[in-house]
Design brief:
Shape: elongated
Helix content: 40-55%
Mean pLDDT: 90
Strand order of the largest sheet: 3-2-1-4-5-6-11
Radius of gyration: 27 Å
Order of helices and strands: EHEEHEHEHEEHEEEHEEHEHHHHHHHH
């Protein structure tokens, strides 16, 4: 079959693309940044879900396409990438074009378990509105609804392993918070199974069938983390229970942190149990889906990576605190006249002492805030390495007494330099 795959550059899309090619299908990837391919079965076209919400735009792309798979999805909004645009408006335009196309025989929509009438978050509502629109069309379609999806290279899976490796975990509220995680390989195999007609159409004779894709067992979210922790060969993890109001407040605060997967909407989705019968999943893949205990293949490697997931942020926040607290101390907590006296001992002319003092404090503050909030920090680590090394050398030369003080204020810059060097090498390029 010739298949149009949207979201091919995403986590699920990448895995699905390889499986479709392995099955012998021809795949046209609709992505924002098209590539070139030497594989005659693979091609790319430009598509942007933030803009392409017109049916006619998609009709021109569907010539010769037998099936469409939509895997576009976001968990948090950013700029023009909103739930309404990416989950509702553009998918509806795509589905309408599929219904008018003379070539498209089937559509597969990647939705989410919980995108039903009880789901009230913008994520669930936007998914449900696209699903319902697809179901209203005279078009053979499958709406696949996975619970949490685990894959070694998935962002959510990395977050789960990180949470599982921490010294303790939090239990938000008192609801069961059931999840039924499915491995990415089983999810992909199930979608491939839809092309092999292993499922009948809906019992009511409709053209659309909703297909929950889940692992073999529903479990509380904290049990999911505990199972991952055991699979990484780690000991028991204490659970701290947060009452409902405290949990909602903590989720709200967490939502303010860059890259956080937890906010109040995420907590609502967690409280809305994500579980279903695994029979359809097993029928599609030809065997029971793998349990959570079998998700992790290399315990030692994943344990190390998981620990770095929270140890590196702790190190980063600690370094940010060093810069910010130093700026605060310089700007008033430490007597200004004593600071000026030290600058005089270092040979700074009187007219430059105040500018040097406040300039240094301002630089410290900027470095601290940059460490907290900048998305790309490799250049910042290099800058900090240079500042710490230069200041240490100047102080060692002009104020050698700091080298032999009992508390070692200057010598303590050595582990700081090592930490900055580590962050530089481990930070994503």
């Amino acid at each position: 079959m010739r298949i149009l795959l949207t979201g091919a550059s995403g986590f699920v899309g990448q895995h699905l693309l390889q499986a479709l090619l392995t099955e012998g299908h021809h795949v046209v990837c609709a992505v924002r940044h098209p590539e070139t391919s030497d594989d005659p079965r693979l091609s790319y076209i430009h598509a942007d879900f933030t803009n392409d919400n017109n049916k006619s735009t998609w009709l021109s792309r569907l010539s010769g396409i037998d099936a469409v798979i939509n895997t576009v999805g976001i968990f948090r909004e950013s700029g023009r990438q909103t739930f309404v645009r990416l989950h509702k408006e553009t998918p509806r335009a795509l589905f309408a074009a599929c219904a008018e196309s003379h070539d498209v025989q089937m559509v597969i929509q990647l939705s989410a378990l919980g995108a039903d009438r009880e789901g009230t978050t913008p994520y669930h509502v936007s998914k449900r509105e696209a699903d319902d629109y697809l179901a209203s069309l005279p078009l053979r379609s499958y709406i696949v609804q996975p619970s949490l999806v685990y894959g070694r290279d998935g962002a959510s899976a990395r977050a789960m392993r990180t949470l599982a490796s921490m010294p303790f975990t939090l239990r938000f509220g008192s609801k069961p918070q059931l999840v039924q995680p499915i491995h990415i390989d089983d999810l992909v195999a199930a979608i491939i199974g839809l092309f092999k007609h292993r499922l009948p159409m809906a019992p009511d004779g409709g053209a659309t069938m909703r297909v929950p894709l889940v692992g073999p067992q529903a479990m509380p979210f904290t049990d999911y983390l505990a199972t991952l922790r055991r699979a990484m060969a780690m000991g028991r993890q204490p659970v701290l229970h947060l009452p409902g109001r405290v949990a909602r407040f903590a989720a709200g605060v967490a939502g303010l942190l860059p890259g956080s997967l937890l906010d109040r909407d995420a907590l609502k989705m967690l409280d809305h149990d994500n579980s279903a019968d695994a029979t359809l999943t097993a029928n599609l893949i030809g065997h029971p889906p793998r349990p959570v205990s079998a998700f992790i293949q290399d315990a030692e490697c994943e344990r190390a990576r998981a620990k770095l997931g929270w140890l590196l942020p702790v190190l980063r926040y600690s370094i940010a605190a060093v810069w910010i607290i130093t700026a605060i101390v310089t700007l008033g907590l430490f007597p200004i006249e004593d600071s000026l006296a030290l600058l005089a001992q270092a040979g700074v002319p009187p007219e430059l002492q105040l500018p040097a003092l406040y300039g240094a404090a301002g630089l410290d503050l900027l470095l601290g805030l940059g460490t907290l909030f900048l998305a790309r920090r490799r250049w910042l680590w290099v800058t900090q390495l240079g500042v710490v090394a230069l200041c240490s050398a100047v102080i060692a030369f002009t104020l050698p007494q700091f080298l032999v003080q009992p508390f070692g204020p200057l010598v303590k810059n050595l582990p700081l330099l090592a930490a900055l060097w580590l962050l530089y090498h481990l930070d994503e390029k």
